[in-house]
Specification:
Elements: E1 4-10, E2 15-21, E3 26-32, H1 46-62, E4 72-77, E5 96-100, H2 101-110, E6 115-120, E7 124-129, E8 135-139, H3 151-167, H4 174-184, H5 189-198, H6 203-207, H7 210-213, H8 217-238, E9 245-249, H9 256-269, E10 274-277, H10 282-294
Parallel strand pairs: 1-4, 4-5, 6-9, 9-10
Antiparallel strand pairs: 1-2, 2-3, 6-7, 7-8
Helix pairs in contact: 2-10, 3-8, 8-9
Length: about 300
């Protein structure tokens, strides 16, 4: 039987697992719910369950037993900083590496070469690794303190604008208010706010409102300001590199205008930079790091 390797990307909205053999042939993809531990206590099984369920789903899609053994598994998890707050993940391997999701996104986006990855999903962060192997992280302060240019921050600021407009009896945003209430299937912004504070509306669900919000001109400005911030952070880490490269990854970059705003901002500040989309998704980056963990040549991944 072929040697099995797995890479997992645990995000704030969902978790993705990829299974591959030792030659770089990707056998399957599995998914599960969010894996981050924001607000988790010692009783939480959120991280453990998300990793286990995504890998089990990938096993089923590959026609493999769920209890299959793996030569190595690397998992990158949003917000992980060296400590597990809830139940410790139990993975079917003797070589399991748990790390922050930024390095796995970087490994996938740039296929192991130096440069910066700009991540804009539910959260946002800029992570760079230079020619000497030195790494640097900018942004990524989380939903309370920053994450400009993330889906959550755009949705949060859009809803805050609507709530202030309601207090001011500003009727120019009625269409946007109706769109927000319809999206969340609630009768008023008050209900939306209460649902957020009660936990009925998750951060992932709030972030999912962003594609709707940025169709409106008033909210597009919020997205543009976030994009400009990400471009500025990317410029800071690229300025010192001999061959500046940046890859853009995350759900927000499926929006062509947002992608071009960040890309154009980076190139305006760093004209010599090579800027494009990620070569591989973050879970594939985790796979590449798993090969490295085994001391195997890093292959060109094939689907």
């Amino acid at each position: 039987m072929s040697t099995l390797v797995a890479g997992i990307d645990g995000g704030q909205s969902s978790t993705v697992a990829l299974i591959a053999d030792e030659r770089g042939q990707v056998l399957s993809r599995g998914t599960s719910g969010p894996a981050d531990e924001v607000g988790a206590d010692s009783n939480s099984t959120r991280l453990r369950d998300a990793l286990r369920e995504a890998l089990a789903d990938a096993c089923r899609h590959a026609g493999l037993p769920v209890e299959s053994d793996f030569a190595a598994i690397v998992a990158g998890v949003s917000g992980y900083e060296g400590r597990v707050y809830g139940a410790m993940p139990e993975m079917p391997t003797q070589r399991f590496t748990l790390m922050h999701d930024a390095p796995v996104a970087h490994a996938g986006a740039l296929a192991g070469t130096p440069g910066a990855v700009v991540i804009a999903g539910t959260g946002s962060v800029v992570y760079a690794r230079d020619e000497t192997g030195l790494s640097q992280t900018l942004g990524g302060w989380g939903f309370l303190f920053g994450d400009e240019g993330s889906a959550f921050s755009i949705a949060r600021d859009a809803l805050a604008l609507l709530m202030a407009a309601e207090d001011d009896d500003d009727r120019s945003l009625r269409g946007e208010t109706h769109a927000a209430c319809d999206f969340f299937a609630m009768g008023s912004l008050r209900q939306v706010g209460r649902a957020v504070y009660s936990g009925e509306l998750t951060r992932a669900r709030l972030a999912a409102f962003t594609p709707v919000a940025i169709r409106f001109a008033r909210f597009r400005k919020i997205a543009e300001e976030g994009a400009d911030r990400l471009a500025a952070l990317a410029h800071r880490v690229l300025a010192a590199m001999k061959e500046p490269r940046a890859a853009l990854t995350g759900g927000l970059f499926t929006d062509a205008d947002f992608y071009e705003r960040v890309r154009g901002g980076i190139l305006a500040a760093t004209p010599s930079a090579q800027v494009g989309r990620a070569k591989y998704e973050p879970a594939a980056g985790a796979l590449l790091l798993a090969y490295r963990e085994l001391g195997l040549p890093v292959p060109e991944l094939r689907r």
